[in-house]
Every structure is written in C-alpha cells, then in structure tokens.
C-alpha cells in the first residue's frame, strides 16, 4: 500500500493541491479555509521532501501519466534540479500559509478569504506543475494556472489599496503576452520535430541541426520566459504587482514564481535546446548577459531611491534575477551551480524581507520607509529578521548570499571575465546601500512622538525566522545546498551538447 | 529570368499564405495591446494576438488532401495531424479564462476609479497620492 503510494508521488505532488484548492471556497472565510490550506501545503511539502531525498543520489524518476509512455504520453520527470526547486516552492508555500493566517486576516475582507486561499493553493499547484513536468506543452498549461491565480491574488490587494487593480491588469497583459510567445516558440519546435516531450525534443533537435524555424522557436521561448522571470527590459510588470499585492502574496510570489521561471529557463536552455547550434550560445553571450548586467545595476540603483519598502524589495528582485541569469550565461558547471544556489538564497531572503514588510504593514500601518523611523526598537525581532535577510541579499559572509556570490565570482574568473566579476562585487555595494538605508532609519532614527507599534504576532515571526535561520544555517554549513546545486548543474550540463575541454 | 523571380515571390506569398495571415494578425493584435489606452481595447488586442497563435497551430496540423483524423476502415486514409488541434483546444480554454479575468479586473477598475482609460487612472493615482498618505498619517496618529 505504502509502496504503491510512493510510486505515485510525482503526480500526487500536483494533484493534491489541485483537488484541495476548491475546498477552500466551500469552507468559507476565516480559520477553516486557512487551516485546510495550511494542512494541504504541509502535505505538499512532505511529498516534495521525500521526492528530493529519493533523487538526491542521482536517480531520475520518470512517471508516465495515465500509463501512456512518453513521448506520446505526458511524462513527469524528477531529477535533482527540479526536486530542489519543488522543495523550495512547497516549503515557501507552507511557511507563507502559516504567515498568511494573521496577515491575510488583517489585509483581506473576511468574505474574500476563502477565494484568496483557493487562488494561493492553485498558484502553488501551477508552480509545482511547471517544475515537475517533462512535457513542454504541459509547462504552458501549468504556467497559466499559476499566472492566472497570481493575477487574482495581486488584485485581491485592492481591499487595502485600489492601485492593486491596475497593477494586476498590467501584469495580466504582459504575462499573457509572455505565455503566448512561449506557445509560439513551442509551436515552431513542434513543427520541426513533431514532439513535445522535453527529452525527445532535445534528441530530435540535435539530429535536425540548424534551421531558421529552430532559431525562431528559441528566440520566442527565451523572450516568453524572459517576460515571466522579469528579465531586465521585460520587468515592468513586477514593481507594481509586488508593491500592491497583499503581503503574504508578495512574499510567496517573489520567492517562488520568478524562481520557477529561472528554472524553466535553465531547463529549456540546457535540456531542450542544449546549445546544439552556435546561435544559442551567441544569444546568451551577446544579448542575455548584457541585459542581465544592466538589470543588476539598474534594479539596484532604482531600489536605492524608493520610499516604499515593498517597492524597494521589488526592484531589488529585478537585480537579483540578473545575478541568476549571469550565472546561466557562463554556460559552465560553476556558473550554473552559483545560479542555483542564488535561486535558493534569493527565495529564502526575499521571503524573509517581504514577510518583514508585511509585518510593518500590519503593525505600523505602512511600508513607507519615511514613516518607519525607529521601528527597530518597537519591533526588534521583526527588524532583526530584516537584517539577516538583507545581509543575505548583499552577500555578507555567514549568510547563504555570500556562498552564492562567491561561486558566481569564481565562475566569472574561471571564464576570464574579470570585469564581470568586478561588477558582481561592485553591485553588492549598491545592495548594501539600499538595505542600509532602511536599517539606518529603523535603528538610528528616533521614534516619532505618539506612535505605538507592537511586535508582530508569533505566527508571523516563526516563518520569518525560519527563513532567516535557513539563510544563516546554509551560509555556515553550505554542504547540502552546494552538493544539490552541483549535482543539478552536472545534470544540466550532461544533458546539453556543450563540449567541455 | 524576371518572371522566374516573380514566380518565386508569388510562391513565397501563396505557399505560406497561412503564415502571412498569422503574422499580420499577430502584429495587429500586439499593436493594439501596446498602443491603446482603453483597457477593453487592450483585451481585444490581446484576443486577436492569441487568435493568431491558434490559427498558426491549426494550419500547422493541416495535411494537404487529408481529412479529419477519425479512425476508419481504410488504413491508407490521409488525415490531418490532430495533435496541434488538441493542444490549441487547451490554449483556447486558457485564452478564455484570461479574457474573463481581464474583463473582471476591468469591471473592478471601473468601480474603483470610475474610468477605464489608462491615462486617467495614472492621473487619478498621481492626484490621490499625497492625500492618501496624509490619511495614512492620521490613521497612524
């Protein structure tokens, strides 16, 4: 019985939250729908942990949906890389649920809460589906499940601030254009190969060689995913969406959805396209790399001048995504490894930081930095978590951010790209500037007269500090993340047709 | 020689007729989505853009002289490739959900702002910004 269940884990990973989501509506607002969503997210997390432990030694689970063998049927394929991402998504999901209890009660009308939790669980389902599937069209379907629920989640911020509505609308328009570009790319690939299974696609693309259709497909898919992951000039939807979304949503979406898009990018670039033609390498080096570098600098500089803490964090996300893309464009084992560790680092750090911002929204009624003078004394635990998350973003030693930046700089030096290594280190100073700006206000400035701010409740502090603790723990003991990232990177490199001297 | 060139060009146009139409529709849709300030018109543009992709998939699966892909007794029956058609059925469902959500958002925006013109919304947000923050101040005090 148990054995039979274990064999079905890949599909259970997606189907459990998918089926559980509508029950949140039936259970109504308040504690019941929250409790249900929380239990579901815990079960989902347990499933992804057991999947991760199964594949950590290098085995690859291939699950045939409905018993139809690939390439005809849909295949779910779990290797170290996507098991790692699954664990991040469901882990962040579970902790955000815990956090959401008080935060959502504060920010969302009671009558909307059932719907809110439905959308949140559905969003998680979509992200898990994108990550686990080995079928290219299936990626699109799950991508849209997660995107559509994210638009609804962002719009639910309208209970507090009506600007959430245009933000959600713009996100919808740009997200849909991105997803449609992705589908056009898939169509072009389907034309050249006649298959949609990723492994089969990779095999056929290598055999078919170069063609204009393949190049077009590559371009459409890179731009489509680029829109979803907020690659520099395609990032315009992100700041408003993250700023006006409810705090729990900002924390969940910033920590997972762009990370899943980065995963998609890696999966398509290395496993599907595999750099079998020089064109793909050129696009990486001459288009994606410069854009990623511009994104790092521009995102960080704009972040320095933001007054709203959530908007500051949103711009910092654009910069952090740049680092992940830079790691990918090195097309080397070390670069990918740095990129994967940074993916983990950013998920953990941004979840902490947005949770802190949400705690300020709840207890101080604002996330505007100019109104948070002296908040570090009133809310010491919350603000200390901000410090840890912020240091991890900067890359201060003893945080996981240091580990990822270290590998990234090493990878840049290994390529002989000294200016890029310098830029990575230099841009950390920009990160220091925007993080310190808030720290200075929070700790050094006097508290204004007559303002009382209570410490955040325990259900918000616990998830915040679990994330902060993870940043510290994996900054000191980097073996687990490095090993998983290293194996995942080797898997990607081995699947591609890059030749390594 | 000259007529040969002309033939080539005509072949390029006629032989890829469906793709030309797809590209034209796609560009019209994208242009509307980007250039219009009216939120409903943007959705219309998005729909045209998506429809062009549907047509791209559907025409891609067509095999000349092929019939509908239905199992018959004749093993030599030529039939169109059903896979792109099935895929696009899914994409149409996604497109409808997107449109529905976008329209719902437009309704909410109309309720909150009293307008569905992008410029007016930006203007309103700019106007209310200081006022809103002031009221937040009062709430904090």
Short description:
The complex is a heterodimer of chains A (501) and B (141). Chain A has 501 residues and is mostly helical.
CATH class of chain B: Mainly Alpha
CATH topology annotation of chain B: Helix Hairpins
Q: What topology, given as strand order, has the largest sheet of chain A? A: 1-2
Low-confidence stretches of chain B: 131-141
Named at the architecture level, the CATH assignment of chain B is Orthogonal Bundle
For the largest beta-sheet of chain A, the strand count, sense and barrel status come to: 2 strands, antiparallel
Count of DSSP H/I helices of chain A: 20
Number of domains of chain B: 1
Radius of gyration of chain A: 21 Å
SSE arrangement:
The complex is a heterodimer of chains A (501) and B (141).
Chain A: H1 2-7, H2 9-27, H3 31-55, E1 61-64, E2 75-78, H4 80-107, H5 113-132, H6 136-155, H7 164-193, H8 198-208, H9 212-228, H10 238-244, H11 247-273, H12 278-304, H13 309-329, H14 333-363, H15 375-378, H16 380-394, H17 400-415, H18 418-444, H19 458-476, H20 479-495
Helix pairs in contact in A: 2-3, 2-5, 3-4, 3-5, 4-5, 4-11, 4-14, 4-19, 4-20, 5-6, 5-11, 6-7, 6-11, 7-9, 7-10, 8-11, 9-11, 10-11, 10-13, 11-13, 11-14, 12-13, 12-18, 13-14, 13-18, 14-16, 14-17, 14-19, 14-20, 16-18, 16-19, 17-18, 17-19
Chain B: H1 2-15, H2 17-35, H3 39-60, H4 82-113, H5 118-140
């Amino acid at each position: 019985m148990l054995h039979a269940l274990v064999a079905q884990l890949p599909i259970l990973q997606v189907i459990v939250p998918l089926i559980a989501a509508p029950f949140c509506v039936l259970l109504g607002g308040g504690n019941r729908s929250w409790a249900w969503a929380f239990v579901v997210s815990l079960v989902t997390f347990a499933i992804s942990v057991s999947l991760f432990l199964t594949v950590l030694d290098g085995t690859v689970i291939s699950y045939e949906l409905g018993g139809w063998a690939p390439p005809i049927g849909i295949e779910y394929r779990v290797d170290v890389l996507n098991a790692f991402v699954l664990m991040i998504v469901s882990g962040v999901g579970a902790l955000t649920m815990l956090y959401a209890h008080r935060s959502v009660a504060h920010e969302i009308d009671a009558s909307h809460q059932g719907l809110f939790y439905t959308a949140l669980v559905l969003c998680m389902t979509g992200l898990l589906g994108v990550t686990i599937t080995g079928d290219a069209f299936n990626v699109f379907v799950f991508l849209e499940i997660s995107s559509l629920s994210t638009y609804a989640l962002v719009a639910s911020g309208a209970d507090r601030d009506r600007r959430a509505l245009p933000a959600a609308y713009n996100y919808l328009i740009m997200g849909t254009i991105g997803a449609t570009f992705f589908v056009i790319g898939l169509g072009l690939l389907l034309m050249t190969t006649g298959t949609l299974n990723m492994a089969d696609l990779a095999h056929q693309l290598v055999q078919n060689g170069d063609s204009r259709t393949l190049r077009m497909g590559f371009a459409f898919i890179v731009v489509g995913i680029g829109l979803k992951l907020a690659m520099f000039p395609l990032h315009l939807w992100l700041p408003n969406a993250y700023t006006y979304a409810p705090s729990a949503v900002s924390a969940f979406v910033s920590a997972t959805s762009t990370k899943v898009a980065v995963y998609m990018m890696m999966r398509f670039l290395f496993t599907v396209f595999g750099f079998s033609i020089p064109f793909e390498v050129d696009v990486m080096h001459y288009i994606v790399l410069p854009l990623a570098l511009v994104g790092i600098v521009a995102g960080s500089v704009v972040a320095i001048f933001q007054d709203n803490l959530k908007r500051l964090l949103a711009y910092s996300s654009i910069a952090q995504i740049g680092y992940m893309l830079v790691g990918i464009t090195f097309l080397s084992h070390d670069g990918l490894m740095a990129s994967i560790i940074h993916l983990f680092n950013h998920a953990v750090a941004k979840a902490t930081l947005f949770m802190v911002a949400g705690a300020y929204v709840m207890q101080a009624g604002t996330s505007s930095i100019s109104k948070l003078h002296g908040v570090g004394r009133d809310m010491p635990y919350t603000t200390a978590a901000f410090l840890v998350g912020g240091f991890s973003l900067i890359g201060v030693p003893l945080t996981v951010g240091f580990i990822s930046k270290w590998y990234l700089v090493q990878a840049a030096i290994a390529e002989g790209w000294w200016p890029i290594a310098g830029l990575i280190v230099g841009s950390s100073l920009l990160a220091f500037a925007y993080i310190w700006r808030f720290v200075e206000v929070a700790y050094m400035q006097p508290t204004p007269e007559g303002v009382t701010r209570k410490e955040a409740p325990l259900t918000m502090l616990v998830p915040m500090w679990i994330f902060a603790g993870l940043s510290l723990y994996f900054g000191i003991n980097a073996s687990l993340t490095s090993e998983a990232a290293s194996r995942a990177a080797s898997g990607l490199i081995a699947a591609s047709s890059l030749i390594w001297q | 020689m000259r007529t040969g060139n002309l033939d080539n060009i005509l072949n390029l146009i006629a032989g890829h007729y469906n793709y030309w139409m797809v590209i034209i529709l796609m560009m019209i849709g994208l242009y509307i989505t980007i250039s219009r300030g009216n939120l409903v018109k943007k959705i219309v543009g998005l729909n045209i853009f998506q429809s062009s992709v549907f047509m791209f998939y559907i025409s891609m699966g067509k095999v000349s002289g092929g019939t509908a892909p239905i199992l018959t007794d004749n093993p030599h029956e030529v039939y169109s490739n059903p896979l792109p058609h099935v895929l696009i059925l899914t994409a149409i469902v996604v497109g409808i959900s997107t449109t529905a959500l976008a329209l719902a958002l437009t309704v909410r925006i109309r309720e909150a702002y009293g307008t569905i013109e992008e410029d007016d919304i930006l203007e309103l947000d700019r106007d209310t910004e200081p006022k809103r923050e002031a009221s937040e101040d009062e709430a904090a005090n």
